[in-house]
Design goal:
The complex is a heterotrimer of chains A (about 250), B (about 350) and C (about 80).
Chain A (H helix, E strand, L loop, with lengths): L3 E4 L18 H15 L5 E5 L7 H4 L3 E4 L5 H11 L4 E7 H7 L1 H9 L5 E6 L2 E2 L5 E2 L18 H4 L5 H5 L5 E8 L3 H19 L4 E7 L3 H4 L3 H15 L3 E5 L4
Parallel strand pairs in A: 2-3, 2-4, 4-5, 5-9, 8-9
Antiparallel strand pairs in A: 6-7, 8-10
Chain B lengths: L3 E6 H11 L4 E4 L6 H10 L6 E4 L3 H12 L5 E5 L1 H6 L1 H9 L4 E7 L15 H7 L8 E3 L4 H18 L2 E7 H5 L1 E6 L26 E2 L6 H21 L3 E4 L6 E4 L2 H16 L4 E6 L1 E3 L3 H9 L3 E6 L5 H9 L5 E5 L8 H9 L3
Parallel strand pairs in B: 2-3, 2-4, 4-5, 5-7, 6-7, 11-12, 11-14, 14-15
Antiparallel strand pairs in B: 1-8, 6-13, 10-12
Chain C lengths: L5 E5 L9 H5 L5 E3 L11 E3 L9 H5 L5 E5 L10
Antiparallel strand pairs in C: 1-4, 2-3
The chains are: A alpha/beta (about 250), B alpha/beta (about 350), C alpha+beta (about 80).
């Protein structure tokens, strides 16, 4: 039997080493996006908008045109790009602090306008780059560097459910919450991300995939423990579900 | 060159000028006294296959401008003082990413909510930088509707020439006033500058373009800053613009820009009737500020008298230009109060 | 059905020793190397046998360090 590559890295990655911590799920999601860009054959017309956060360097990890938006404003920058170049594929890659805290308004309104954009939203329940502070999606009771006694609703409010919120927006064409904590989850996440891109490519509307992700360093766990903690705790607060699918097969 | 001549409101003239300069993208948010620009754009842009989008905030607006500008296309927004304050972070990013675009600030009384009357109290923000970091805006201040048309077109050209944001610093009066204007013809879009060497358009059979103001390495960021400074040095050399009125044998020099620059002409005429020889130096480019010519004029007068609709901001640049050769006096009104020629004349005469 | 034969190659320099591939491999064919890479991590290392080319390690790797081959190991694998 002739030996051939069964699984090899995607072309659309630039080859630059990722700056993420060992076991950080950002890297898995990056690879899925790059595989989809390869498979859809859109590398030559894709433009990426990176956020401010751990993935601020992401625009260097993809072999596509890219920029970095001010913190929280990626979807506004992407809107400007898409309005200027409607036939290009524009996607944003954002963390929970970027999208669900400072960038909430930009996110809600891009979705509400049904912008033909794709957003990959990494929800790892903390601000990673700045050292593990509370994020809008931090669980109740979860310790972070700004909730040293655990997040308390009385003082810090409740975890924000972005996908549930956006599912009420008519302009949304594809919306799913996934995780990349098991091989099966990873395969499913790839399908979801592909559909979020197709929502744009088929000119249907706004596509967003919320990816529950680990942050081993700031959670103070090993990568494997972090995955277990995510599956046991985060998925309870943030159920995995397809919220909107106007893309079909 | 066939031009049309018609009566137009300042805000609408600025919008039409932008369209005739080849701008086909406008993002904006309503704020008095300039909402007519957005309204006009919402009517006109669809007529020329352009894109108009009303946004959810000025913060979103400036970032949409960033996104559109990063594709190399001509894009514009307009706002008024509080709105422009919200845009400052975005302006800093746009300058850092070297993206050409045009802002219009139709200034109103401030600070805070202030009022909706014309004012000039945003001079520092416009010329000394309202956002973070070493950057400059190319700032042009019209004093008539016709000049607003011409400077809007110039703003697009300068933004492209320097790959830098340009700002039209108008005020509520210029925005709301109607005057006859001659409109230049529509520009052929194929003649617009080509930015395909850096613009984000999709890496189709070319290396990917990266446009960003970001560099985690300080030495790299310093190199980027050196590049910006070279541009600014060139702009200081090539883009100083001003107007003079009866400065030939003036004994005293009046300095004012925009609406006040216009009022000062009547002041000069009034004082001339009383045998007092004064002239007006009206900066048109507020950055780069026309120090060179001001310095020359200051040599030949007894003192300089600066008038602004603020507590005195441009007067600091006037002092820098005059460099102590002669005294520099100031008269100003705040809160959106527009000074009358008479009150300026009496304030001036007290200095004699 | 004959068991599928395969093997993997791991870029030990790029690997950060996170262990996710080791955790994901259904046949436990990967382990931590006792050596260090230049970043100071113990990279993952293929035990040399047992791989069924399922790709779980490739899927789970956050740094795209693993290439999975289908078929017997040969000196110069044929790229697809």
């Amino acid at each position: 039997m002739e030996t051939k590559i069964a699984f090899g890295g995607p072309k659309s990655l630039s080859g630059k080493e990722f700056t993420y911590c060992p076991g950080c799920h950002h890297g898995i999601v990056h690879r899925l996006i790059a595989e989809i860009i390869d498979e859809l054959g859109i590398q030559g017309k894709t433009i990426m908008v990176a956020p401010v956060g751990c993935s601020v360097f992401a625009y260097e990890f993809f072999d596509v045109d890219g920029t970095v938006a001010p913190h929280g404003r990626a979807l506004a920058v992407a809107t400007g790009m898409k309005r200027a170049l409607p036939d290009r594929v524009v996607f944003t890659y954002q963390g929970d602090g970027d999208l669900a805290a400072i960038g909430t308004a930009e996110t809600v309104h891009a979705a509400n306008r049904g912008e033909k954009l794709t957003t990959i939203f990494i929800n790892n329940a903390v601000y990673g780059m700045t050292g593990g502070q509370m994020a809008p999606t931090t669980l109740l009771g979860q310790k972070t560097t700004t909730t040293p006694y655990g997040r308390r609703a009385k003082n810090d409010g409740y975890p924000v459910h972005i996908s549930e919120m956006l599912s009420t927006m008519v302009g949304v064409a594809y919306l799913e919450r996934v995780t990349v904590s098991t091989p099966q989850d990873i395969r499913n996440a790839k399908k979801a991300i592909r559909k979020a891109f197709l929502a744009q490519i088929k000119n249907i509307g706004f596509g967003l995939v919320e990816v529950l992700s680990t942050c081993p360093t700031n959670w103070g766990m090993s990568p494997v423990e972090a995955q277990r903690w995510l599956l046991e705790n985060m998925t309870k607060e943030f159920p995995l579900k397809v919220f909107v699918d106007k893309v079909g097969d | 060159m066939k031009t049309e001549k018609l009566m137009m409101k300042g805000n609408e003239a600025i919008a039409e000028a932008a369209i005739r300069a080849g701008c086909r993208l406008y993002f904006g948010y309503p704020i008095t006294p300039q909402s007519e620009i957005a309204e006009y754009m919402s009517r006109r842009l669809p007529e020329v296959d352009g894109t108009f989008l009303q946004t959810e905030s000025e913060v979103a607006t400036v970032n949409m401008v960033y996104g559109a500008a990063s594709t190399g296309k001509r894009v514009m927004t307009s706002t008024s003082s509080p709105g422009f304050s919200l845009m400052q972070e975005g302006v800093s990013y746009i300058a850092g990413a070297e993206l050409p675009c045009v802002f219009v600030n139709v200034v109103r009384g401030g600070p805070g909510l202030g009022d909706i009357q014309p004012a000039q109290s945003d001079y520092f923000q416009a010329t000394k930088g309202g956002g973070h970091g070493d950057y400059k805006l190319l700032v042009l201040a019209p004093s008539t509707i016709q000049e607003a048309v011409e400077l809007t077109q110039l703003a697009f050209d300068l933004a492209d020439k320097y790959r830098n944001p340009a700002l039209i610093l108008a005020d509520g009066m210029i925005g709301q006033m109607m005057e006859p204007v001659e409109l230049p013809p529509m520009r052929d879009l194929s003649t617009l500058p080509d930015h395909s060497d850096w613009a984000l358009t999709g890496a189709n059979e070319r290396e990917p373009h990266k446009v960003t103001s970001f560099n985690i390495d300080p030495y790299g960021l310093e190199e980027m800053n050196k590049r910006y400074q070279e541009k600014y040095t060139r702009a200081v050399r090539e883009e100083q613009r001003w107007e003079e009125y009866k400065t030939d044998n003036a004994e005293y020099l009046l300095v004012g820009y925009g609406t006040v620059g216009r009022i000062l002409k009547s002041v000069v005429d009034k004082l001339a009737e009383e045998g007092i020889a004064t002239g007006v130096f009206r900066p048109i480019s507020l950055w780069p500020f026309p120090y060179t010519r001001l310095r020359e004029l200051a040599e030949a007068v007894k003192f300089v008298f600066t008038v602004e609709m603020s507590s005195g901001q441009m007067v600091e640049d006037v002092r820098l230009g005059v460099e102590g050769r002669v005294p520099v006096h100031f008269y100003g009104r705040m809160g959106g109060v527009v000074p009358t020629p008479d009150e300026i004349c009496s304030a001036f005469k007290k200095l004699l | 059905m004959a068991k599928v034969q395969g093997y993997i190659e791991i870029d030990s320099e790029r690997c950060k020793g996170c262990g996710l591939c080791i955790n994901a491999c259904p046949v436990k064919a990967i382990e931590f190397s006792s050596e260090f890479n230049s970043k100071g991590y113990h990279p993952a290392k293929y035990k040399g046998e047992g791989c069924i080319a399922c790709g779980f390690c490739y899927l789970s790797c956050p740094d795209v360090c693993i290439t999975v081959f289908h078929g017997a190991r040969r000196k110069t694998p044929v790229g697809v």
